Amino acid sequence: MRQPSLFIPHGGGPCFFLNPDNSCPPAWTRMRDYLASILPSLPEKPKAILIVSGHWEEADFTVHTGAQPSLLYDYGGFPPHTYLLDWDAPGAPGLAQQVKGRLEAAGFSVAENDTRGWDHGVFIPMKVAVPDADIPTVQLSLRKSLDPADHIRAGEALAALRDEGVLIVGSGMSFHNMRALGQDVTAQADMFDDALSAAVTDPDPEQRRTRVTAWASLPQARFAHPREEHLIPLMVALGAGGDDPARHDLKDHVIGWTVSAYRFG
């Protein structure tokens, strides 16, 4: 059965596992509960997951081809036990080659990497969403240009994988301004989130693509994203969603930020 494509928040560092017993602090429970609800909400268990994280950028799209990727603990200043977390889902080299082929057919140059570990934009939310780590997973990088149209086009090139049982996931944060930590920025964050959500859920698919491509013109856009690497995974998910209906799946307020999740199809 056809899988949707998703844009999910991956939180802050190992946020869902900060307590010594790896339990979730209260501030992050709503986001954690949303991530935990993903698998039960799908038409069937995915045959594989293709995930794009805001924490991997390369000059060209790069696909991870490893059979058993390690983890990359690319966060700092957290409790020692968070550097012992595991999520040992297998890679999917065959799917990785399909991803490469489809992107190349769309005119993109594509590189391969079989040694990089999965960053926390992958293993932290997936540890919540797929706790049994039993779904083969492939990570695709962003292009360092961070061009919205290119990433939407990449998603369009990959959309047919959904019909083969592949769940396509963009993992980022709809608000990501580290300089705003500790400040009350709810008004600015809500203003951007409302405008972004209206664009993402536009019922006209062509208008949706146009409006989201022009995200930087939305109110408070550059306050919400001084640099947009955490927003660009949304473009891949939206492109992969094609003309399917878009749904606003989560709106959460955490650490003073407004954070949303979206589902296509």
Protein architecture, described:
By secondary structure, the chain is α/β, with parallel strands linked by helices. Helices cover 32% and strands 21% of the residues. The chain has 9 helices and 8 strands. A 6-stranded mixed β-sheet has the order 5-2-6-1-8-7, sandwiched between helices. It has a two-stranded parallel sheet with strand order 3-4. Strand 7 (246-254) and strand 8 (257-264) form a beta hairpin. The longest helix has 15 residues, at 186-200. The chain is globular. The mean pLDDT is 97.
Give a topology summary.
Elements: E1 5-9, H1 29-36, H2 38-41, E2 48-58, E3 61-64, H3 93-105, E4 110-113, H4 120-129, E5 137-143, H5 148-158, E6 166-172, H6 186-200, H7 205-213, H8 221-224, H9 232-241, E7 246-254, E8 257-264
Parallel strand pairs: 1-6, 2-5, 2-6, 3-4
Antiparallel strand pairs: 1-8, 7-8
Helix pairs in contact: 1-4, 5-9
